[in-house]
Design goal:
Structural class: alpha/beta
Number of domains: 1
Strand order of the largest sheet: 1-2-3-4-5-6-7-8
Radius of gyration: 17 Å
Keywords: Transferase
Organism: Pseudofulvibacter geojedonensis
Protein name: 3-deoxy-7-phosphoheptulonate synthase
Domain DAHP synthetase I/KDSA: 8-240
Number of strands: 8
Order of helices and strands: EHEHEHEHHEHEHEHHEH
CATH architecture: Alpha-Beta Barrel
Bound molecules: phosphoenolpyruvate, manganese (II) ion
Length: 254
């Protein structure tokens, strides 16, 4: 499996959820011509409990197409079933990610992997919500078994019944164990879902880079407090860009 990129960490940024065409385009335009490589926005959102916003759905794909055309950024969405894969591919989405609530389910992962057979798009597999390295490895193997060349993992932390500082415990040994098992697999760190709090995102990102993670995926919103999902952990685009400036170019001085 090939490394994603050399030279600098791969950076994915954008809102937890696509909410409106204006919101998506406004955030994307503030991230163009920066260190951001890929624009993320969830349009299908598997939520732990019903009654929360479950995503804008298919119409968000045309918004992402506009992002690509107007900013040149690649785009990324979560796919949770084969239909999502079909629609995302039809609408030119570059990067597909598998969410942590999907990675726990082997039959679903296999169905999605089958729908991705041989595609050139990058596919990123989030760790399962529970701290289980084998389940994460199993999901990765189901995709590599379908001739996916551009495969990577995302470490988004692990849920814990105990009250802890973070929304999801980082348990760094698990992603480091994944790296030992699959030394060539790029692993991206998701400080937003580990932190659950925007004030913790910078320090977590710095720790991840010091552990040689290959990239970052950071939730970024133009009005974070009013976000329809994950409001507490999203950062403003200008905050993201200042963080990246420190993390990517001046880490030694901090
Ligand atoms: C997300 O990326 O917005 C998300 C829901 O992630 P996770 O699957 O890690 O909870
Ligand atoms: Mn989110």
């Amino acid at each position: 499996m090939k490394k994603i990129k050399t030279g600098k960490p791969y950076v994915i940024a954008g809102p937890c959820s696509a909410e409106s065409e204006e919101q998506v385009l406004s955030i994307a335009h503030s991230l163009k011509e920066t260190n951001v490589d890929v624009f993320r926005a969830g349009i299908w959102k598997p939520r732990t409990r019903p009654g929360n916003f479950e995503g804008i759905g298919e119409k968000g794909l045309s918004w992402l197409k506009r992002v690509k055309d107007e900013t040149g950024l690649e785009t990324a969405v979560e796919v949770a079933n084969p239909k999502h894969v079909e629609l995302a591919l039809k609408n030119d989405v570059d990067v597909l990610w598998i969410g942590s609530r999907t990675t726990v389910s082997p039959f679903t992962v296999q169905e999605i992997a089958n729908a991705c057979n041989g595609i050139e798009n990058r596919i990123l597999i989030k760790n399962p919500i529970n701290p289980d390295l084998s389940l994460w490895m199993g999901a990765i193997e189901r995709f590599s078994g379908q001739n996916i060349k551009k495969l990577g993992a995302i470490h988004r932390g692990f849920s814990s019944y105990e009250k802890i500082k973070y929304r999801n415990a980082p348990i760094w040994e698990i992603p480091l164990g994944l790296r030992r098992e699959f030394p060539d697999l790029p692993i991206i760190f998701d400080p937003s879902h580990v932190a659950g709090d925007r004030n913790l995102v910078f320090d977590l990102s710095r720790t991840a880079l010091s552990l040689n993670f290959d990239g970052l995926i950071i939730e970024t919103h133009n009005n974070p407090d009013k976000a329809w999902s994950d409001a507490k952990q999203q950062v403003l685009p200008e905050v993201l860009l200042a963080m990246l400036d420190h993390l990517l170019y001046r880490e030694g001085e901090l």
